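Let us work through a complete example step by step.
Step 1: write down the sequence.
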Amino acid sequence: MEVTPHNDVNMQSIAQILSRFGDTTILVIGDLMLDEYIVGVAQRISPEAPVPVLLRRERRIGPGGAANVAWNVASLGAKVYVAGAVGADDAATELKQLLADLPANIAGVVTDPTRPTTLKTRIIAHQQQVVRIDTEEITPLSDEVSNALLSAVQPLLDDVDAILVSDYAKGVVTESLLATIRDVARRRDILLTAGPKPCNLNAFHEFDFVSFNTTEASEAAMLNHEPVTGYREIGVRLATRLNVRGLVITRGDEGASLFTPTGWLCDIPAYRVTVYDVAGAGDTYLATLTLALATGADFVTAGRIANAAAAAVVRKAGVAPVTIDEIHHVMEHRWL
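Step 2: predict the structure and record it as tokens.
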């Protein structure tokens, strides 16, 4: 079936779901990053090389990766615990302060002095990104650090309604870590959601709900080198292979498609909005989907709410979170 934003929406029911976000607690575990923006003006060419000289005017920082997911969860009014690994560096200090200010509980953030905090530095001149500089270590966490992470997470689990794994393939997500997380979630009846990267696909077997973008889904479906035709075949193949309750493929301006292991469930077209920046939209979608499911919303309704959240956030410049009022506005004004 196709679900369109122009169909009648029971806004009273949607409002009830959104109102329960504030009573929900989510543990976000994954690859924490710091986004850094160096903004300036370029007025001349360097005498040393044929490159512009940037006169620095401003530096901005923000949560990235799994930290951006946590930012969205907090912005939607929920209580959020954050777990992951950072280095023993200035970026870690700044990132932990940003998370604490959300506010988020950062008791699950451990320090690994052998690796840097993942840092994405964007150089901006005249409102255009000139270059991005990445500081990162993508090898898997050592057993010692991974065990420390699990130990830090353990006391937080008594209070959570859902565990959201945000995988950016930066070393935190491993099969052994997720096997333990999955076992704990099953024993405690905790909702388990994720945004997997294809390289770690098998680690997400038997999660409750997972979300991919089109590129990730296509890459993941081709890992066994069997040909696939179209997004519906890809979605069914992945949902079956992972044995999840539900799988989403977000498809940009074509909306999102929902699947279960028994087949394609529905397509939810995108809301027609003016798009300024798609950065972070996947994080917003997954955070909102998880919150809606954790409050008891059915898969399709949760998908519709998450679609509206993504529509709201792409209207903003730069990585930014979404609010309940913005979701409500998009869903209420379906003509946008």
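Step 3: interpret the result. The first helix runs from residue 11 to 19.
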